[in-house]
Structure formats: structure tokens, C-alpha cells
């Protein structure tokens, strides 16, 4: 081995490096261990000293309390009277009551010459009246706190009250200090709250003792002022946590030293054998430069990421193949899709519209500054409109580039624009059509040279009447919608019969049904159906439902109206059950195309109509909105269902009288 080291410079270098590193690690770890141990020791001693001061304060506070109680007792008129009358038997009962109320161990009344006049619970054979004063004393073999109060005007007689310092009392002190405690007198432990060892410590400074369970404690002793023998307060802090921490730290430092030494040896072997000093220097400089550049790049990327994440619009970045690599928080909010699920998808799939047409990113990339509107449905089912613009990030001629897409939510803007255009077109159509029919009928009447009989006049006036009815319904809905929007919608409640309300509504819509040859099937209860409501608005709601059913039903198909009653809460006699309530249900059924389930939650909103590409679109989308507002204002509910065999069923429910 010696020959090997003499002949191999590499081996000697490895040995020197390994030895130096191992020595340095051991020295550093040893110093760290000693510093940590000293800190833990100092913290434990500080905690012990603080707990000891707290315990002494609690004992002194209890001593002051006992002296105060003794003074209070000595000044009691009853006590003074009993002493003056020498009614010692009655005085004993009085002292018993005071002792119990004050949670004391014993109470004594003494004469000036030290004789016991009366006592409560005093240990037998104890002559306490000869004690020189208040303080800590041994009474009945137990350490005791004694308070004294002189009775005024009673020939210098006095009272003594006492609190034995037993395990229960010390536990209360330990609870306040957070330590374990004991009392020691003349080298003998009198009472303690912990599983103390048999031997008492040296009572000087801080020392370590092990209890009966093998747990190590830091222990210190403090003298308690007393007029007799020396009394010491023993305070103990368990330090099993400190010992465990020291062991863990020592093990960790040892293991880390061995691992680090092994790594250093391996690196030294490889470095000495494979490279020389100039190459190492060059590589080190290169590594430093790369590290600095990488740090700058990471910092720039973090700043850019923070900036992009703060943008309200969504930012999506893809590679040159269109695969999503970055998905900002704004994009998550707009598209209702997490970045975790979006990354890895193709941009064409991510921005696919409802019709299934794929988004073409290349078209936008070829026209920087341009944007494309897309109507999408998010994974939560929400329809949104977004404006997408794109740009290619990268230097000309680079093989790989990054494509950035900016997604802006323009749903509300587009909805407002469509709503404005749709409303103007619809309202123009809805006014123009009946006015044209009305004008045609009136022109025929005005220009007719020959007198017309009654049948011919009715035939000419019937379209005009239907046009006027349609215009009246449209204007009523517009006025009610305007009142709702302005917050001026109000109801005038009175008792009304829904059968009468239905009859009024039928008179309004019957010409429309007759023109479309749609029979009206009505099913009513035999008795009046009374509710509290506004007759005008209830009639308008029914007119809108019947008109809606007639317009969207095929020509010649029937429209059915049903009014029914049911009772809710029939178990009135059961405790906790509500009184029965009569509910009236009005249902209007048609044979039309039904309602798209996706449109069901929106159909009662303003300007929303049923979508059917094969049928003519009717109205401006206010009828169901007005009906829902009226029924809701009456405290009722309204909804729509689709029949399995076709058609829709609009219904509302109100509380009947």
C-alpha cells in the first residue's frame, strides 16, 4: 500500500482531499452539535428558572391571601362577640363554617398567652398558638402555610388559619409553572408531584435527576422563608425531548458526514483521473457563466409569467405543432378549463366551436393584428363568445418557434349587439306584419264600390281584428316589460276566479286559434277556483301562454288547457306538520316541437325564443318573460316540460283560497 501511494500521485491527492474534507466535516459537525446542545441546555435552564419564579410567586401569593383571610376573620363581629362571651363551643362551629367556606385545612383561636381557645380540624396534639408568627411551618408532620390575624379589643387574642402544602396544592402550583415540584426539609422530601428518585439532590445550582420511570429531569432548589427548619422548593423540568433531539442531531450529523465524505471521495477519484487542472478551470468558468445565464433566464421567465398571469385576457402558447404549452389564469377563467387539462391539447381542439368546426390557427398567424370571433361551449355547459388573435414569437429562420394566442371574452358585448339588432328587426317585423294586414283590409273596404253584405264585411274585417289583437298583445307585453325594467311593476290583489280569468284570455286568443284551425280543449273544475291576484296580469300571462301554444303548434292541432287542484300537507293532526294548503295548477299543452333542454333555463328570459330552423320565428321573446314575472310576483311558480310523445307543457301554480 505504501508503494502504491508513493508511485501514484493521483492516489495521494485523493487521500489528502478525502482526509481534509472528512476532518473539516467532523470538526464542523462537532462544533454544530456542541452549539446546539448548549442552546438546548440554556433554553431548558431558562425555562426551569422561569417556572421556579412562577411557583415561588404562587406560594407567596397564597401566603398573602391567607394573611388577608386571617385579618378578615379576626375582624368579624361574630368572632369578637363569641370570644368576649367565652362561648367556645359555638365559636368552634363558627370556625368550622369559616374553614369550609375558605377551603382551609384548620383554623384556631388563641389567647395572648398561647393557649388554644377554640379550633377547627387542628391535628391532635399540636400546639400551634406558640408559633412565633405567620409563614411556613411544620404542623402535624406536614409543611403548612399559616396566616395570623390579631383580634382587636380582645386582650391581644389572635386567630390562625392554615393551608397544608400537600400533593393537591403542589399540583395546582405545577399547573401554573409548567414544572414538577416537591418540598424538601433537612434533606428529606416531604411531598412531590413527580415520580421522584429516592435521593435528594445536592441542592446547589442545577443538576440532573432520573425519576422512577427513567425520565431525566433538570432540578434546582430554592429556599422558602420560614422561621423554623430550612424548607426548600424543588423544581424539576423533564428533558427527555432534549435528549432525543441531541440523539437525532448526532445521528444526522454522523450520517451526513459519512455520505458527504463518500461523495467527495468518489468525485475526487473521478476528477483526478479524468481531467486536469486547466480543463477544470475552463469548465468551472463555463459552468459559472451558464449558471448566471440560467439564473437570468429563470428570473426573466418568472417576471414574464407573473405579467402574463395578471392579464385579464387569456394567453395560450403553443409549440410549432400547435400543442398547448402554456395556459394562463385568464384563459382558465374564460374557458372554464384548468391549465393541467389544457396543456398537451391541440389549439384546434381547445377552440373548437359548437358545430364541431376546427379552429384554424394558421389563418390568424398569417394575418397579425387580425382577430376571429368564435362561439364556444365550455366544459361547464356555458356558451361564450371569444375574440382570438395570434402572433408567432421567434426569430426569422429559426426551426422552432412559439405561437401566442390572445383570447378575449366578448360574450356580453356580442350578446348586447345581437340583442339590439334582433330586437329592432323583430319589433319592426311584429309591427309591420299586422299593420300591413290591417291596411289591406281597410283599403278593400274604402275602395270597394259595391256595398258589401255582413258576411263579406266580416271576412274583410277579421284579418284586421286579428292584427289589432296581436298588436294589443305585443304592446301590452312591451309596456309590462318596460315597467318591470323601470321598477314600476305593481299588482292590485283581489279575489278572482281563475275560470273567469281563463275565459277572458280565451276571448283574446280565440281568433288566432280559429284562423289556424286549432281546437281549444278546456278541462275545468265544476266549482270556482279562487285565488288572490291581479286579474289584468293573470289574464295577460294566460294570453301569452295560449298565444305561444297556438303559434308553435301545427295548423289543425289542438291546444289543451287544464285547471286542477291538489291539497298539500294533509297530515294536519300530526305534531309539527303544517296546515293543508290548496294549490291550483294551470297547464297549457301544445303539439309543437317542444323546448330544447339546453334552452329550458333561458326560455323565460327577455328576448329568448324557441329555436326551430324549420318553422317561422314568432314574437320578440317577451311573452314568457312577462308571464314568469307576473306569476312569480303572485308567489307562484312557472315551468315547462316536454311530452314524450311530442309537444310542450307550460304550467304555473298558485295558492288557492
From TrEMBL:
Entry keyword annotation includes Nucleus: no
Recorded hits in SUPFAM superfamilies, A to Z, give: ATPase domain of HSP90 chaperone/DNA topoisomerase II/histidine kinase, Homodimeric domain of signal transducing histidine kinase, PYP-like sensor domain (PAS domain)
Q: Where are the transmembrane segments?
A: 250-275
> Could you tell me which Gene3D superfamilies the record lists for this protein?
1.10.287.130, Histidine kinase-like ATPase, C-terminal domain, PAS domain
Q: Which reaction does it catalyse?
A: ATP + protein L-histidine = ADP + protein N-phospho-L-histidine
Query: In the UniProt record, does the keyword Membrane occur?
Result: yes
Q: Which InterPro entries match?
A: HATPase_C_sf, HATPase_dom, His_kinase_dom, HisK_dim/P_dom, HisK_dim/P_sf, PAS, PAS-like_dom_sf, PAS_fold
EC number(s) of the enzyme?
A: 2.7.13.3
One Pfam family named in its UniProt record: HATPase_c
Endpoints of the signal sequence: none
Q: Which UniProt keywords apply?
A: Kinase, Membrane, Phosphoprotein, Transferase, Transmembrane, Transmembrane helix, Two-component regulatory system
Kindly list the GO molecular function terms attached to this UniProt entry.
phosphorelay sensor kinase activity
Q: Which residues form the Histidine kinase domain?
A: 426-657
What sequence ranges are listed for the domain PAS?
300-355
- NCBIfam families linked to this entry: sensory_box
Report the protein name in the record. histidine kinase
